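U., I forgot to send this yesterday:
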Amino acid sequence: MAFIIYLVKNPGPSILLLAFLLASPLPAALSKGGGYSANRAAVMIPFLMISCAYGFFFLVRAAGRFRQWISLALLSSAFVFSAFYLESYFFLSPFRIGTSMFAGMRELVDRSVSISREFPVVRVGRSISEPHIFFAFYQALDPRQYQQASRNWLVFEDKGLKFLDQYDGYSLGKFRFGDLKNSEPVSQPTLYIGRAEDFPSDYPYYFRLDSLNGQPEYQVSRRDPS
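Result:
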């Protein structure tokens, strides 16, 4: 509000700032499809900060003899809000967004790769979004090997799919990505890697990894020929 009053009384360069401020959310407003589209509104933050600084400057100048008290109140508010932000960032956020940020993925890959040496077939569920990236990264896979494998993945475009992880059956080494099909019979010992929700509750497993809030997140299981 103080910035608006300042803008009315002091037009000029502030008009340009207002124009940038009003235009900055347009990428988020015009974006289509799923995902966190609001992230595109982050470009507003610098202009909001500059606007607040202008408003703060105007408020302090207009305060007269109450200038010190207003400055103290604003600085105290900034301290309190910063404390809440730091608490949220360091203590609350890991529990709230750990799943969407794939917490525990490194441990899952390391332990799964160690176990996978015993199996001729390893299936990784599509519920882990773009799992091939994690397995390539945490294994420090040779880029030449990755590029060689990825040449065969382009078949997903011929099938009319928009994204690679919609395709059932692309591989990276012995790791096959797509549908787990963990309820179907197998002809050779098979290792399954996926989210805990991909398996029935009584499905035997090598290990499970829990999320930071204590809920089962990932599961690694096996199935042998019957």
